[in-house]
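Write out the bound-state structure for zinc ion.
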Amino acid sequence: MFLKKKMTLFISLLLLLANIGCSAGANEGENGKPILKIGYLPITHASPLFLNQHIHDGEHEGYEVELVKFGSWPDLMDALNTGRIDGASVLIQLAMKSVEKGIDLSAVALGHQDGNALISAKGIDSIQEIKGESFAIPHTYSTHHLLLQELLTLEGMDYDDIDIVELPPAEMPVALSEGRIEGYVVAEPFGALGLHLDIGEVLAFSEDFWPDSYCCVLVLRDDFIDSNFEVAEDYVKSYVEAGKKADEKGSELYEALQDYMKVEDETLDISLEWITFDNLSIEKAEYDKILKKVMDLELMESPPTYGELVDNRFIDRAKLE
Ligand code: ZN
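---
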């Protein structure tokens, strides 16, 4: 009898431990399905994420997906780094910084290709004309920062010829209209918004001086991948499919974007014209260009190598099917 009680207790403990094990990398819904929580900022660069959610309404076979909105990159990164969300659509440099700090993340797909415009006050033909003036970027750890630095180099200017300031994306068009800055470069649709509101004009397109520059990526926490491998696999497959559909830029994409951001269709028309979503693989050669720039600018001391950040297992498998 005593032995039976002991066995029951032992089995109960085992079950409890098994449950803890299951939930280590994912939250669970009422029906016991894992919930994949993905953080985002309302930007057109995250179109595959939004369209995927719009198509499936968060219900996938065997799991659910919840999108969690953030107002700033630092808030989003804090949630990602502490495990309050399982993944995010995020600037690749922020993901690199987290991995450098020891957070186990993997970049599993791009958010988009190209689609960054440097916007200036009207009537400015070259960045040389705004020497000594302020130019806004969203974050030190951003492709926008690197693009600005690249353009300055190509124009024969020094990094400190321009006063580089950090501003929240939504504030940039306003700051330009008030003359607090002479230009900005940021994730879309804020560049397009500046044009649509007739505040500024395009000083340069990223693809004209740095084609295929990477910007946003979809990252997942490694603890989520380890304990929910099939979920990660299926989700990336649906994300890549949504990317292909997003690239058609049809009415469904507009509906999806309107679910997540309050932007007029005319602004989206301009914004989407600049961006492509059809090939979301992260290639080593392009990653290495970013890595070199990050080191040249001394933004990080030991940023992750391609192999330390990028996990192509999911996107490679998605492409085979
Ligand atoms: Zn982006």
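---
The pocket of zinc ion is lined by residues 45, 111-112, 187, 215-216 (CB under 6 Å).
The chain has two domains: 32-112+214-320, 117-209.
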